[in-house]
Amino acid sequence: MTPQLPSRTDVLVVGAGPCGLAAALSLHKHGCTNLTVVDSQLASEHTSRAVAVHAATLDALDEVIAAQCIVDSGVKATGGKVWDGYRFQPWADFSVLEGHTKFPFLLFVPQHVVERVLGEGVHERGIAVYRSTKVVNLVPSELELGMIDVFFEDGQVVQTLYVVGADGTKSTVRTMTGISYTDPDGENTPDEAVELGVIADVTFNVHPTKRTEPLMVLPSGNFFVCIPLPSSSYEGQEVWRIACGVPTGVPPHAPPTEFLQGLVDAYGPGSIPPSARESPKRLEITKTIWSSRFITHSAVAATPFTRLRTPSGRPSGAVILIGDAAHKHPPTGGQGMNLGLRDAAFLGPVLAEHVRHSAQLTSPEECMELDAPLKAWAQQRHERALNVIRSTKASLSRMSCSDEVVWCWGVVPVNWMRVRDFIMWLMNVTGVARRIVPWELSGLMNR
Fold first, then answer.
1. Which end is more exposed in the chain, N or C (fewer Cβ atoms within 10 Å of the end residue's Cβ)?
2. Is residue 340 located within the same domain as residue 389?
3. Measured in whole angstroms, how far is the alpha carbon of residue 107 from the centre of its chain?
C-alpha cells in the first residue's frame, strides 16, 4: 500500500541511502525538523557495496550522530601492503593522522551497516521516511513564493521549499531540474586505464593477507584489491572484498565464482609466488556472497545547487544535489560514499539556517539575496568533487600501467610500469609514501 505523504514540508529529501539519511540527521541536528525523506525502493539494499569509511567522513558524521557506532561495526586498518610483481611494499601508515582526527585509521565496514546505523538514528529522532514513493516531476509553484510542487508516481503532490536530491547517478531530481552531468575532462578514458571491473564479497580457503590490512596487487595493465570485512556483518564468516579490473571483454552482471577465481589466479593474490604469500596453498574462493560489476567513468553535475524559476521568471524553490547525484568517479580509494556523506553533513547547518530565514521572505529579491551561503556551499562541494575526480583518475591510471615500452614524443622509450614501481619503492624507502597516502585517502585535505 502506498503511504500517505504530507501535503507540505520544508525540506524533501529524495533518496534514503546513506547520503539522504545523513542529510536528514544533519538538518535535524541543526534545528530543521519539518523534513521528509522519500525513496522509490521498498527497502534498503542488504549488500555491502561501498566498504571504506575515511577519517574525515567519520569526523563529519560524529557531528550529527555518534560515529563510534559505525567504528565498532568495522575493521580498523592502520596500514596495508602492495605487491608490485617482485616484492611486498608498505602501503600506508595511518598513525600519521593521530592528533588531526579522532579516527586515525581506515575503516572497512559494509555500506548496509552504515545505512542501518544512520537509519536507526533517523528513526530515533522521529524523522519520517516514506518508501515505495517515486518522484516523477518537479514544478515551480506559481502560487506561492519559493515553493516547489513535487509530483509522485501515484498522483500525490508535496509542496516544499527545498528538494535535496540524494537519488544516485540516475537522479530523477537532477534530470527533472535540467542540470547537466558530464565528465569534466570529456568522455575520453586514458588508454592505460581499465574501464570495466568487478567487485565481490567472498570467502577463501586460506587468508590472502592479515585480517587487519588491505592488500593491493599491481599486475601489468590491471589492479587487484583485497580487503578484510568485519565477520560480525556476515554471521561470523571471514569475508573479503575483492575488486579487480577487467582489461578485456565485458564482465557478467553478477560475476559467478568461476569468473572471479580466474581473476584471483591471473591478477590477484593467486598470481603471487607461493613462497611470498601468507599461505603456500592455492588461494581458492569457497563462496561468493555478493558480486557486481562497475565502470570507471566520471561525471559531475554542473552545479549542486539551483533555484527553480516559474515560466514568468519568478524565483521558486531550491534544488540541492548530494552524493552520486552530484558526482561519480572511479572507485579507486573508496571515495564515493565518503564524499557524499560529507556533502550531506556539511549541508545541514547551512540549509537549516536558510530554512529559518525563508519563513520571513516577502519578495523575490530577498529570496535571491538569501542564497549566498548555499551558493558558497555548492561551490565548495563542486570543487571537492572535481578534486576527487582528478585524484581517482590519476590513481587508476597509475595502478593500471602496462609493462611495455612506449615512445614519448616519438624519441624517448619509457616503461611507465617500471617507472611507477621505482618511484613507489623510492617513496617507501624514504618513508614518504607511508605519510602521503593516508592524507590523500583520509579526506582530511579535501573535506
1. N
2. yes
3. 14
